[in-house]
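Lecture 7, part 2: worked example. A protein chain together with flavin-adenine dinucleotide.
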Amino acid sequence: MPRVVIVGAGFAGYQTARHLSRSLRGRAEIVLLNPTDYFLYLPLLPQVAAGVLEPRRVTVSLPGTLRHVRLVLGQADHVDLDGRAVHFTDPEGTEGTLTYDRLVLAVGSVSKLLPIPGVAEHATGFRGLPEALYLRDHVTRQIELASAAGNPAECTSRCTFVVVGAGYTGTELAAHGKMFTDALVRKQPAWPAGVKPRWMLLDVADRVLPGLDEKLSRTADEVLRSRGVDVRTKTSVKESRSDGVLLDDGEFVETRSLIWCVGVRPDPLVSELGLPVERGRLVVTPQLGVPGRPDVFACGDAAAVPDLTRPGEFTPMTAQHAARQGKVAARNVAASLGYGEAAAYKHNDLGFAVDLGGVKAAANPMGVKLSGPVAGAVTRGYHLAAMPGNRVRVAADWILDAALPRQAVQLGLLRSWQVPLDTASPELARIPGRPGKE
Ligand SMILES: Cc1cc2nc3c(=O)[nH]c(=O)nc-3n(C[C@H](O)[C@H](O)[C@H](O)COP(=O)(O)OP(=O)(O)OC[C@H]3O[C@@H](n4cnc5c(N)ncnc54)[C@H](O)[C@@H]3O)c2cc1C
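Predicted complex, written out as structure tokens:
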């Protein structure tokens, strides 16, 4: 029986595995290699950091939802394309090898670094569950320490949170973060009068959500400013230090919290393959095949997929594209094994939804521009429909959050050195002695 190995169980890999297991129905062995036993629904991660959702809500069990797929826990370290083998390391450090007849690379992306002094040392990224958990604790801790601070300068510094990058991740994080810290402050009995948590959102572009529709930008900008977020466009960080950040306009902002949301780059495994790449993404045909390698396919953030709706461009790195590409990859892998016919990937954007916390959102489903509570309801409905599982638990957390005060406790399970910004594995917290890719 032929073996199909899928590397990565994010939006693209999960859908590839799901559709292949249905279409091949026992005619091939389907193996899914992933470092965790869950699919992570990344778009709801800001709500984990802000204490709206408990972390397990945004995970979907792989063995529990992918019948007829063999999960191998581990990280691919090297792909031997000529020998048709994937070498990997499992969570306990044991090395293994998986041979394949067909390979689907769906390893996604990691935080993008910029050569700015101090950022790698002092900033926290936002690409995985460990970072979201760390941030929830860190923010809670800063507010609690600010409340007990001996001097106003320390209090102000601890209450200042700087988010760099006003794409959907940074925008949602700042919007939710401000609501979260305002709620935390209300619970502090000895909170100094007149002090308010300050969230800054910086971007080099001239508007928030620069890649998205201008109406969405305006809606998000209005909500952020009305909530008290200090939005600074055409502004970036020149240097980061342990006591604050120096902006490129010369202002020094005292803070203990720099959150790095400037975007992503493809997983480093891609560049190690020695195959042609486009801005770090693996070049593939519209059928998602790797040119010259008929047994290798790639999809999602890791692949440069030609956008047939915008000739000359590649599909953007979004969950919407990754999930749909996964489905097409499954179809074309099956076709390459003699079952069905291959198809090219072509998908029109269905719009975007940006959750701004509370009942607010900015959305343009099918090009219809929405704001306020209607957008909020549409956005949450969209997320529930898009999640492959755990919907009832997510909805239950939203109801609880609307009815009850948010829980303000730190669990203290993660420290900053365990969630470095410069990592090839944002899905795993670093632990001493664990063999890693970085
Ligand atoms: C905070 C946040 C919010 C977002 N919000 C939205 C949104 O609202 N809408 C939207 O469309 N997009 C959103 N995105 C972008 C979207 O999540 C990505 O485009 C999407 O996850 C890409 O899917 P993927 O399958 O290519 O990669 P991923 O979903 O990142 O999955 C990659 C998988 O590969 C695994 N992996 C990585 N390296 C290896 C290895 N060496 N060996 C084995 N496995 C490996 C990872 O553990 C992971 O499971 C958001 C992203 C973030 C970070």
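The chain has eleven helices and 27 strands. Residues 119-262+351-418 form a domain with the FAD/NAD(P)-binding domain fold (CATH 3.50.50.100). Keep this in mind for problem set question 3.
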